[in-house]
Specification:
The protein is an alpha+beta fold. The protein folds into 2 domains: 94-165, no CATH class; 179-388, MetI-like fold (Orthogonal Bundle). Helix content is 54%, strand content 13%. The protein contains 15 helices and 5 strands. The protein has helices at 24-39, 42-51, 54-68, 73-76, 177-213, 215-230, 233-242, 250-263, 266-280, 284-291, 296-304, 309-332, 344-348, 354-359, 367-388, and strands spanning 97-100, 103-117, 122-134, 136-146, 150-158. The strands form 2 sheets. The protein has a 3-stranded antiparallel beta sheet, with no helix packed on it. The longest helix is centred in the middle third of the chain and has 37 residues, at 177-213.
């Protein structure tokens, strides 16, 4: 009952009462959920938040599938990375069929006949529908040396005996494009991981010194970072890559390229580490560690850096795509990896001539995995960054 100051007539104030009986189990469940959240570790809370980002989760699955090809490239690829077939130069992709003349045959491809057009001087290929070449699975075919340890010939799938299986066509020397993509993933995907590792080490070292000590050290490191960031990235990559000796083996070129990418990518992470340490070093637990006699190295590595490890992981994840694109660009311009090494950029080097691309568009096939991997890393990085943000 309530009463107005001017109107003395009492009026009823409506309110709602739940007619259902009180259920203490609901309150207990909510309490248990809250306790589970407040007692969880930082990494577990980060995982719960990351699972809600569906695109990031699926991107992680896609990247896992791609990286599973890295150690088993020889098994997955039906041909060697540099295996040539002089009878099938610029052969088009062979589509996979299941039915032949109305009956189920299973996965197969039709045989191809090839001849040279003397007017255009180009190879002309036609499907021979009378020749059914069934795809073999878990078979033995082209021999290889698995990781340089032992000889093997087992493949996930193989062409028919005496047949061909060019899922993405061939290049000017008759090399299978699909096998090249599988082998190329080994270098193109790992160059980002190795380069980011170098970038993280340098970023944590210089950023930690600048953020913890400050003063002259901070000013000197900041000026060095500004100089590096003022230089144009791609021309600097090209200049340093061109300085690598052409007599080096593909392995040394690979490591030289990763070191170059890592050395030029650390300034961004160093600034992030510096800004975090400038705020964290004033916290009570950091000052208590200093008063107890802890050395700067221990304060930084054991007390300050673990506080934003999740942010470092998210930043590193977003840096990997730029390194993959950097290796692709340098190899495409013939300044990075070269044959017999195979990467996605090396494969794209075959598609420099636009006239060749218009006639043989399957030479642009390496662009597809590059786009998928770069987008997947960006979505994964966004999900990790949101999960690591304590305010979300």
């Amino acid at each position: 009952m309530s009463t107005d100051l001017n109107d003395k007539t009492p009026r009823v104030v409506e309110h709602y009462v739940d007619p259902e009986p009180f259920n203490p189990a609901v309150t207990e469940d909510m309490t248990e959920e809250q306790e589970r959240f407040y007692q969880a570790s930082q990494w577990k809370i980060m995982w719960w938040k990351f699972r809600r980002h569906k695109i990031a989760v699926w991107s992680g699955v896609v990247l896992i599938l791609f990286y599973m090809c890295v150690p088993f490239a020889e098994v997955i690829a039906p041909y060697g990375a540099n295996t040539r077939d002089s009878q099938f130069l610029y052969a088009p992709p062979q589509p996979i069929h299941l039915f032949h003349e109305g009956r189920l045959v299973g996965p197969f491809v039709y045989g191809m006949t090839s001849e040279v057009d003397m007017e255009t001087l180009q190879w002309v290929f036609e499907d021979n529908t009378d020749e059914v070449q069934k795809i073999r699975f878990f078979c033995t075919s082209a021999p290889y040396e698995f990781w340089g340890l032992f000889d093997a010939s087992f493949h996930l799938f193989c062409p028919a005996e005496g047949g061909t299986l060019f899922l993405l066509g061939t290049d000017r020397l008759g090399r299978d494009q699909f096998s090249g993509l599988v082998y190329g993933a080994r270098l193109s995907l790992t160059v980002g991981l190795v380069g980011v590792t170098i970038s993280i080490v340098l970023g944590l070292f210089f950023g930690g010194i600048a953020g913890y000590f400050g003063g002259i050290m901070d000013s000197a490191i900041q000026r060095m970072i500004e100089i590096l960031r003022s230089l144009p990235e791609l021309p600097l990559w090209m200049a340093l890559s061109a300085a690598l000796p052409v007599t080096w083996s593909p392995v040394w070129i690979y490591f030289g390229l990763t070191i170059i990418l890592g050395l030029l990518d650390w300034p961004g992470l160093a600034r992030a580490v510096r800004s975090k340490l400038l705020s964290l070093r004033e916290e009570e637990y950091a000052k208590a560690a200093v008063l107890l006699g802890a050395k700067p190295k221990r304060v930084i590595t054991r007390h300050l850096l673990p506080g934003f490890t999740s942010h470092i992981i998210a930043s590193a994840t977003l840096s990997i795509p730029s390194m993959i694109l950097g290796e692709t660009a340098l190899s495409y311009l013939n300044l990075g990896l070269r044959r017999p090494a195979v990467s996605w950029g090396v494969l794209l080097n075959e598609a420099q001539n636009i006239s060749v691309v218009t006639v043989y568009p399957w030479l642009m096939a390496p662009v597809i995995p590059i786009i998928i991997v770069v987008l997947a890393f960006n979505f994964l990085g966004d999900g990790l960054r949101d999960a690591a943000d304590p305010y979300k």
